[in-house]
Amino acid sequence: MLNKIKLWKNQQHSSSLRDRIIQIKGQQVPSHVAIIMDGNGRWAKKRALPRVAGHHEGMKVVRKITRLASDLGLHTLTLYAFSTENWKRPKMEVDYLLKLPEEFLGTFLPELIQENVKVTMMGYKENLPDHTLRAIEKAMDDTKDNTGLTLNFALNYGSRAEIVDAVKHVLNDCQNGIIDENGLTEDVFSSYLMSATLADPDLLIRTSGEIRLSNFMLWQLAYSEFWFTDVLWPDFGEQHFIEAIEAYQNRQRRFGGV
Fold first, then answer.
1. What share of the chain is helix, strand, coil (3-state, %, to 5)?
2. pLDDT category, 16, cuts 50, 70, 90?
3. Which of 38, 152, 156, 202 is catalytic?
């Protein structure tokens, strides 16, 4: 009897999710959603598990949310996978984090190809291990002609460094006569950033109850809508992603206007 009740509840839950997805797709869906995936370590600590167990569980959520983002018709999903500050963490944890792209893409890449998802990356490649780079570059090459969702990994990424580097490139191009300083606009400056080929995020999601940007896309998030949740990333499910999209659709974006 209990199993029948549980099955009925699961069916009701799935039906409710499907109805909400249909309703969302009937309205304006954000083109670009960025996510700060936070709380893996705390999730593991609550269960007396090593931190890497939380990162492994979080990887499963990436797969689930990518599928949903593709189904909803998003153009871009950017995931903050590893920051330039994360190198300060214990070496064992850093090593594991940098093995995750290989593990994730090794199993999920065929599905990404089938679902017409394009993989991209923004961040500093110089310090990344060879195995991490090989996995990312293979995924990028194998999906380069796909025209569906762009799954963009922010890997070894830091926004302040990105902006400083962009300024250096602008100065260099001004000195070499490639651009004129009077022609430097916000759009031109954006073209010097790592996200040059992407539209700015419409919506930023951060999990685990933290309310800060943590050096993530500082320029690009200037007029993005923010949605914060106390849910830890490994517990973040389809219903939470849908809730964030619904909240976005109920807001009025003014971009500084009335």
1. 50, 15, 35
2. confident
3. 38
Give the residue from 191, 207, 193, 122 showing the smallest Cα distance to 164.
193
Q: Catalytic site residue 86?
A: yes
194 or 13: which carries more pLDDT confidence? 194
Query: Is pTM, for the whole model, over 0.70?
Result: yes
User: Is 38 known to be catalytic?
Assistant: yes
What is the CATH code for 29-159+201-249?
Answer: 3.40.1180.10
Domain boundaries, the chain: 29-159+201-249
Active-site choice (86, 152, 156, 202)? 86
Chain position carrying tokens 């964030």: 244
Task: Give the closest residue to 133 by CA, choosing from 98, 107, 158.
Answer: 98
What tokens does 77 get? Answer: 């999903």
Distance CA 100, CA 233 (A): 15
Q: Extract the tokens encoding 69.
A: 């983002």
